[in-house]
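Tokens in:
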């Protein structure tokens, strides 16, 4: 189980906020994408680098029923990010903040309970952004909100967190930290 502290969230935020455009370079490695759940019990993160995500590893309990939950999504790739996406089923996504500032953000209409948020970091010609941070508010429409985060780099390599569920505190399913 990976439990994150507010100190780590602040450090991550500062690293991404101070990121600047860099010259493009080919690495051949997939990006890394991480979702940090700060309003859950306990605060938890899930990464595209996690080896096992089954059973209790696929969910976390919300602190309160019906509340808006803060989720931080970070992505990085030394060769540069092309796009980062967050998908939600049965939860409304609202962007609270995004970095780099020059990123283009698009949020789809909710169709059948599904919503997709796309972020395209836009660096000056010949340069790339190697990291991105998206601060989201997630408003549940039901007792379970399904989320996933994906990133693709400038070479076409992709990574995903896989589906991860935010569950009502009274839900009987065993989750991380329960």
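Residues out:
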């Amino acid at each position: 189980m990976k439990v994150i502290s507010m100190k780590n969230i602040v450090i991550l935020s500062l690293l991404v906020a101070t990121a600047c455009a860099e010259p493009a370079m080919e690495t051949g490695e997939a990006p890394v994408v991480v979702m940090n759940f700060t309003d859950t019990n306990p605060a938890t993160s899930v990464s595209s680098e996690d080896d096992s995500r089954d059973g209790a590893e696929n969910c976390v309990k919300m602190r309160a029923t019906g509340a808006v939950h803060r989720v931080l999504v970070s992505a990085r790739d030394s060769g540069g990010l092309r796009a980062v996406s967050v998908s939600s089923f049965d939860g409304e996504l609202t962007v609270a903040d995004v970095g780099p500032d020059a990123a283009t953000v698009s949020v789809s209409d909710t169709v059948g309970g599904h919503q997709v948020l796309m972020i395209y970091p836009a660096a000056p010609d010949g340069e790339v952004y190697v990291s991105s941070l998206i601060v989201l508010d997630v408003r549940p429409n039901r007792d379970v909100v399904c989320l996933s985060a994906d990133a693709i780099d400038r070479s076409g390599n992709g990574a995903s967190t896989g589906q991860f569920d935010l569950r009502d505190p009274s839900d009987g399913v065993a989750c991380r930290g329960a």
